[in-house]
Amino acid sequence: MTVLQARNIVRDYHLAGSLFKPARTVHAVKGVSLSVTKGKTLAIVGESGSGKSTLARIVTMIDAPTSGELEIDGEKVDITRGGLSKEMRRKVQMVFQNPYGSLNPRQKIGDVLAEPLLINTDKPASERRDLAMKMLLKVGLEEKHFNRYPHMFSGGQRQRIAIARALMLNPSLLVLDEPVSALDLSVQAQILNLLADLQDEFGLTYVFISHDLSVVRYIADEVLVMYLGEAVEYGSRDAVFSAPTHDYTKMLFAATPRADVESIRARLARKKAA
Hints:
This protein is of the alpha/beta class. The chain is 40% helix and 25% strand.
């Protein structure tokens, strides 16, 4: 089953001119097509300015594409025509790079998790509380955390809270925009393992935005490489990593230091020889 289908997505930004600069159009995304099947992870890779975050905003229905088609669970999406139903909004949720920036510092964590249910469902308060508590435990936190505030948690714990909140509405698709880039390496591993466990348990579908190829290699089933708004490489993780075809992809891989023992020994040998 295909959860996400995008065809020839284009996103242009028209910038007004000034006394010294003429008006111009920035082509942020240029005809990108992709699809993700249920239970799989598509990683979108590229440098800053490649258009990957713009594409994520279109997939999460925050921004409308200039042209192209977007389908979620086989249903066409067009946010420019009368808005979206609550049901469609529930189908796609997002986890941001900085969880603290997306958490209300005046809300207790239990209220943070229950709020999506309050806005989007008719469930009574007692049921919302029970579901929020279960999800809190599911992401590796404890009951005592339910009535604490966001500033009382570490970065890794706050990201767990953000993931829990995104899952409260049982979305069809979870878009993760650089979800571990601000975390320490050991905490990154914990969050990636959590995402993998949740995906196995609930059959979740992920679009994972990242510039870190080691993270992508661990979590992705398919990889889409973006460069200057275009999809320059698209295929299975193993195919892209073992035999990249585009020069930009090869450059990305060459610029990424490998941390396995043989690579470290080779670098030390080259340094010694030099």
